[in-house]
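Entry for fe (ii) ion complex. Fields follow.
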Amino acid sequence: MSTTSHDDGRFSRRAFLGAGIGGLAVGALGGAGGVAWAHADADGASALPSDGVPSTTAYPFYGQAHQGGIETPQQRHAIFAAYDLTVSDPRSLQVLLARWSAAIAQFQRGRSLGAVEPTRDSAVPTDTGEAADLEPAGLTVTIGLGPGVFDDRFGLADRKPAKFAKLPALPSDQLDPRLTGGDLSLQACAEDPQVAYHAIRNLSRMAQGTATVRWTVMGFGRASAGKGQTTPRNLMGFKDGTRNIKEDADFDAFVWHDGADQAWMKGGTYQVARKIQMHIENWDSDFIADQQSVFGRSKQEGAPLSGTHEFDVPDFAKKGSDGELAIPATSHVALAAHENNGGLRILRRSYNFTDGMNENGQINAGLLFVAYMNDPAAFVTLQTKLGRVDQLNEYIAHVGSGVFAVPPAPASGSYVGEALFR
Ligand SMILES: C=CC1=C(C)c2cc3[nH]c(cc4nc(cc5[nH]c(cc1n2)c(C)c5CCC(=O)O)C(CCC(=O)O)=C4C)c(C)c3C=C
Ligand SMILES: [Fe+2]
């Protein structure tokens, strides 16, 4: 009996996919052999890496050392939103942070804000309802405070952490002002995109009269790996996140704020978000040797060009038989590696995004690069170097940008950032 079709001759979805890859596609390519995906199962059907958390997972919001969505195993989907505050009194900001915190605690438990179907005919539903029958899906919503929170509007200037400021102009920046900055940020991540969407939609609704959405990015697939997770691929087809921060000791050293200059930030961190457009058509027409040179890694395995396996430690001094460095000095990893940056490291928690096609029919897609670190200067140092000479620059453009201070998680009954106002 065939393992790829039903007895009645109907094709199963798996069989259809198998035929597409092994049959139809091969025919269309004039007989070129297909390559089995790393996770293909016995009958050739593609099985996705199964390292997402179960949909019933509900992460606690209160009483944690850190907000969720940072060290949390990276969920498959994300929506990032930056907001402008339209008020200028600290009380309104406090109320918004308190209301957001209470709502996020509900959402992370898989609950709605209130009745989806109120009993009174004239009542407007508090919750929009699209997550009513969905599981919590490992939702985390992370709140960040932009540099504007510490300007003269809210009387909080003396609470600004010493290292926190707007990002400076960086080499190769092609920032669109409409996708840049923000007084507040929300990062919603979940295994179900509708759960993340519901959170941002309802939190934005709650902000009416206090804050307006400035820019958003809808991430549809994780493009970084956390501890124990399979390394996913970005839209350039390369494994992304192989050498990410994964150990607790590295989180302590490079991610968590020690609260030394501002006690309210202890256990918090800084978030850098960049919307990075990819010139995908150019990339797709580049030859493989150049693609691998750009990253300094092989495409299929993700190995450093000095080695064989994904997790081999890169040898940046190794030369090939031609006398050239195996990992080019201007490759992305040679420039970004901690070995070549005085030990400096950041946590990457990025997502692929697509905005469809632009008016010229070109694919409008890229990387929602999100990174966490205990000093934003780490990003500035790396991006100053990358922006100058990274081979990758030919294929990308940084179009959106924001930096946010992320307070620790609130105690039970409190709210994110409460200690800032004490
Ligand atoms: C300023 C920091 C970084 C930006 C911006 C950035 C953009 C960016 N990166 C990729 C793809 C890959 N990056 C990889 C490694 C890597 N990238 C950074 C930093 C930035 N990347 C660091 C610190 C590292 C680790 C370097 C190392 O220690 O070896 C990799 C290789 C696999 C991995 O280790 O993750 C890929 C692939 C894209 C596509 C991109 C912008 C669109
Ligand atoms: Fe990178």
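NOTE: The first helix runs from residue 13 to 28.
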